Amino acid sequence: MTPFAHATTPGGFLLVLAVILPVCAVLAIFACGPRSAARIAMTTLAAGLAIAIAIAVELIASGAALSYVVGAWRPPLGIALRADGLSGAMLVMTALVVVTVGLFARVQYGLHDGAGGGRAQTTFWLMLLALWSALNAVFVGEDLFNLYVALELLTFAAVPLVCLDGRAETVKAALRYLLFALVGSLLYLLGTGLIYGQYGTLDLLTLSRLSRQEPALSAALALMIVGLLAKAALFPLHLWLPPAHAGAPAPASAVLSALVVKAPVFLILRLVLDVAPPQAAAIAGQLLAVLGAASILFCSVMALRQARLKLMIAYSTVAQIGYLFIVFPLAAGSAELPPWGTIAWTGGALQLVSHALAKAAMFLAAGVIAEAFGHDRIADLGGFGRALPLSAAAFGLAGLSLMGIPPSGGFVAKCLLLTAAVIEGYPWLAATILAGGLLAGGYVFRVIDTALAIPAVPVAPRRPVPRRLELAALALAVAAVLLGLVPLRPFGLLQIGRDGLAMAGLP
Amino acid sequence: MTLLLDLALVAWLLALAVHVVVQRGERSAIIAFLAFGLLLGLAWVRLAAPDVALTEIAIGGGGTGILLLRAEAVLRGRGKEEEPMTRAGKLAVAVGCAAISAGLGLAVLSFASPAPTLAPAAAEALGATGLGNPVTAVLLAYRALDTLLEKIVVLLALIGVWSLAPDGVWDGAPEVKPAIVPGPLTYLARILPPFGIVIGVYMFWVGADAPGGTFQAGTVLAAMWLLVMMAGLKPPPDTSRPLLVLALTGGPALFLAIAFLGSIFAEGFLAYPEGLAKPLIVAIEAALTLSVAAALAMLVAGPARKAPAR
Amino acid sequence: MTASLSPGALFGLCGAALVGIGLYAIVTHPGLLRRIVGCNILGAGIFLVFGAVARRGGGAGFEADPVPQALVITGIVVAFSASALAVALLKRLSELNVGERNGTAAPTEQRGRL
Fold it and tell me: Would you say residue A338 lies in a domain?
């Protein structure tokens, strides 16, 4: 075989655990039944968080990517797992959000114990864990078909979460989501087949080293990226997202909006950066940036016009995802500077993580509000900040990140992207970033304004809400703000393991 | 001569596919899709892929066909349709789809020559697994991680389907028996299962060395079970019934257990100790066959509709 | 021409055509059930492209490359699971719609809402 190939590194087994442990928990909950679901889930959340942190520690300590060759069958015949710095950041972010959401759900389901014979609760725990496994599999996957299975795992875990409440409206949203996601994965699969036909391998590391000029490769990648865009809900393929994310129960909305849409974005990034021929990558980058900018502008305006809080947050997700796509031309890099050395690369990664934390915080806060008042119509929530000060604070802090106001992770992210847009000569992207920030300010302040309003008849909660629920939302919002303390320069962790990939082509 | 036969097969496949799409009646479209699935099996035989042919006929055609037919019976007359597209819109979509097909066709014709292949690598490694069927080796050794995760996908689909039950009856039993059971169905349900079970066990057993394997065997067993339930000879089980849960989780659980043991006693997760590969794989396949059979049958049966017997 | 129309290429072209037919059904058909069928036709076309790849890659005593064959088997099972979930959602949706029209939607189903 080729001299440079995957080899299991110390700590590589952690990657297997990150993918497989939640799967074991799914089987255990399924076998033990609803009564032990929450307990098994809580144990797994703790263990999974420890694994994610261990992977990050190992990455930083060794300064190199972690790899694992599954079953000792080397690619191209077998499958490898690999985590570089970016994957490590994704794993930790995912673990933080999943664990906080899990704690929130534990408290919230505690309020409704026994309702409906445990159907919604048990399904939620099963799907949350399966979703975690799928996300981890996407972040550490190295094999295009293995990634397809991971994407399908993600779809099958996400879709039932949308219609947990069993109303016609949410079942409809779930069905639409499923159809979009299925067509998306099928297009991805088709591209995978073409790549195998051309190169006889599905391993990303091997593919990244080949001389890649054939038009067939560009066609295959175009199919895969379009399929992934449907899953990532980039404008104009976003129509399924708002009803699906707004209709799910709050903890489910939080993971769907914060994490699930990030998986296809991550894969698009890997395809464009590691596999695409340079020229095709440049063209794709421009196209993706145009769609990203359209997403930011169009869906921010849509968010402003929503009457329901959760729909507003869902439209904001599509807008914020747009920022991740304007990174492509900005982080193109040059002969001296690889993409991952650019400030746009760090900015994009920060935007991804800070949006995940902020958006999860917002959906959880919205869940607290809906729990307290029994609805989420913004117009009828005047003065809710008095009844739920912590949730209002969580919403406001998370809003800082979405708007890009200091001090927040979103500020640093958008500041880096803006600087990159100016330096690289993309005034229209700079203008979009600024306009997007203003529009986000509009929809966030609309809610803050409502929270602080003093209506003639103050709104009273239908029932008291445990403080712990509010604290979960607040913790995520504070984490999103703390990300703003990251220094304004290319970030070391995000470059670990990237060099190995670039050097791989050399003898 | 064979080229002519192949051309006829392709023409027939395409005609059926178009028929499925343009046909007005829902039921006749689905029946055409069933025929399409069977023909597709033939195409796979012509592609020298008998394992895929069996899977396609059993699951792609048969399983999906039954699923769709049952759905059509429920939805008949009350399926809300969306606004049909305008003629110009349809034409634009048709042109777009034709362009995609044409581009794809070009890509298929311009694949690299000589064709890149993993067949030699798969053949070389076959000895270490002790298996005779290379497809089984890919599924259960070289790319076992895919197969493991895909078993979880099937289980998740089932959990998702079950989650669509109304709240009170969630852990109860689905309804499989139609309002009126036709006489021939009962007759078939009495005589077919013994043969079906033998065929299923045979398919699983030869799968290690010859075409066949867990999915094909599992589907045959699932079909027999569904037949018995549809004829009302045996009621469908509660979804929370321990035996059913054991059947569903047993395959993936054994797979996982052996995978973890591999990281202690062999070269790593999902590796098999030398010399023990074949018996371990056959054991995993046996458990998976039962899991696949239970999962497929329950996926067709649908969510619970009767409160559980407590 | 005859050389390029080996069974592999021929069924690969058939797969390419099926992809277009399936996509057309998914985009244009007003009925949701038929869109699910369309997904299956699209899937069948994609699998045939894999089949063409496998057939071209025969060697080492095998008539076809076993790896793409195994991928297709996994793909068929995933596609079936997807159809089952989609069909279950569709049935439930129509049930709920009928219940709403008759005003008999069970109130307990609202309780999971958070």
Answer: yes
**Burial code of A90-122, b = ≥16 C-beta within 10 A, e = fewer?**
bbbbbbbbbbbbbbbbbbbbeeeeeebbbbbbb
What integer is the mean pLDDT of B162-181?
86
Which residues does chain A have with pLDDT short of 70?
1-4, 113-117, 211-212, 335, 487-491, 499-507
Q: Model confidence over C38-92: pLDDT tens digits?
A: 999 999 999 999 999 999 988 878 889 999 999 999 999 999 999 999 999 999 9
B271–A contact, CB cutoff 8 A: yes
In this structure, the number of other CB atoms found within 10 A of the CB of residue A485 comes to 10
- Domains: count for chain A: 1
Task: Count helices and strands (H / E) in chain C.
Answer: 3, 0
pLDDT reading at B229 higher than 50: yes
Provide the domain limits for residue C32: 7-102
Tell me if C114 sits within 8 A of A106, measured CB to CB.
Answer: no
Where residue C22 sits, what CATH number does that domain have? 1.10.287.3510
> Considering chain C, what percentage of its residues have pLDDT values greater than 70?
83
Test mutation, C34, C72, C89, C92, chain A, max A CBs within 10 A: C89
Residue C110, pLDDT above cutoff 50: no
Within a domain: C1: no
d(C-alpha B285, C-alpha A232), whole Å = 36
Which of A393, A446, A418, A131 lies closest to A257 in space, CA to CA?
Answer: A131
Mean pLDDT of chain A: 90
Cα–Cα distance measured from residue B233 to residue B223, given in angstroms and rounded to the nearest whole number: 14
Chain A CB contacts of B243 below 8 Å: none
pTM for the model stands at: 0.95
B vs C, Cβ pairs < 8 A, gives: 292
Handedness of CA B167, B172, B177, B179 (dihedral sign): negative
pLDDT greater than 70 at residue B156: yes
Question: Percent of chain B scored above 90 by pLDDT?
Answer: 54
Considering the domain boundaries, does residue C113 fall inside one? no
In a domain, A2, yes or no: no
Nearest CA among A445, A253, A439, A461 for reference residue A360: A253
- Provide the number of structural domains found in chain C: 1
Inter-chain contact B142–A73, Cβ cutoff 8 Å? yes
Give the domain extent around A378. Answer: 13-503
Q: Is the Cβ pair A117, B170 closer than 8 Å?
A: yes
Q: Which of B10, B59, B116 sits opposite C77 (nearest CB)?
A: B59
Q: Which of residues 19-48 of C touch B (CB under 8 A)?
A: 19-25, 27-34, 36-38, 40-41, 43-44, 47-48
Res. C4: pLDDT tops 60:
no
Integer Rg of chain C from CA: 20
**Which of A123, A103, A132 lies closest to A22, judged by CA?**
A132
pLDDT at C2: 43
Q: Measuring CA to CA, how many Å separate B228 from each of A143, B171, B176, B292?
A: 42, 21, 10, 17
Q: Is residue A265 domain-resident?
A: yes
Q: What is the pLDDT of residue C111?
A: 37
C-alpha pair distances (Å), A238 with each of A310, A314, A326, C84: 16, 10, 17, 24
Instruction: Locate the chain B residue with the closest alpha carbon to C39.
Output: B21
| B214 has pLDDT over 60 | yes
Domain contains C108: no
Q: Tens of pLDDT along A277-295?
A: 888 888 999 999 999 999 9
Domain ranges within chain B, ordered by starting residue = 1-74, 118-310
The whole-angstrom distance between B233's CA and the closest CA on chain C is 24
Asked whether residue A302 is assigned to any structural domain, the reply reads yes
**Pair of tokens at residue A435:** 């306009």
Give the residue numbers in C contacting A (CB under 8 Å), as ranges: 19, 23, 26, 32, 35-36, 39, 42-43, 46, 49-50, 52-53, 56-57, 67-68, 71, 74-75, 78, 81-82, 85-86, 89-90, 92-93, 96-97, 100, 105, 108-114
